Amino acid sequence: MFKVPHQAYTAEFKAAAVKRVKDGQAVAVVSRELGMSGQTLRNWVKASDAGTLNGTGSKAVTPMRRCTWRAHRSSPRQLMHPPRWSSHKHLLD
Q1: Which tens digit of pLDDT belongs to each residue from 42-72?
Q2: Where are the domains positioned within the chain?
Q3: Which long-range contacts (CB under 8 A, 24 or more apart) does 67-71 make?
Q4: Binning pLDDT at 50, 70 and 90, where does residue 9 land?
Q5: Which among 39, 3, 4 is positioned nearest to 17, based on CA atoms?
Q6: DSSP-assigned letter for residue 16
Q7: Nearest to 17 by CA among 34, 4, 3, 2
């Protein structure tokens, strides 16, 4: 078994793929033609229906997530023992 590398898709690519599915093409056919996972395309269709389909790099980074990323980069030990959320109460206020 091999790991598929992470791909970055633009908002236009996602919208075009979702449009093909909504126009009646099967998810399996569209995903195979585009060389991507069928589940990823299903997620995009679901996000499009909810109005939350975004392009690459459009995830909102919260202060909590940023703090966690810094902690994980700072030392290998913290990768095994991530910080407890109670120690980051200042970010919740």
Answers
A1: 999 999 998 888 876 655 555 666 666 565 5
A2: 11-50, 63-92
A3: 67/91
A4: confident
A5: 39
A6: H
A7: 34
What's the CATH number for 11-50?
A: 1.10.10.10
Q: State the Cα–Cα distance between residues 79 and 60, nearest whole angstrom.
A: 23
Return d(Cα 37, Cα 72) in angstroms, integer.
Answer: 29
**What pTM was computed for the model?**
0.56
Q: Which residue has the tokens 């690459």?
A: 56
For 27, the token pair is: 């998810």
Contact 9, 47 (CB under 8 A): no
d(CA 28, CA 61): 32
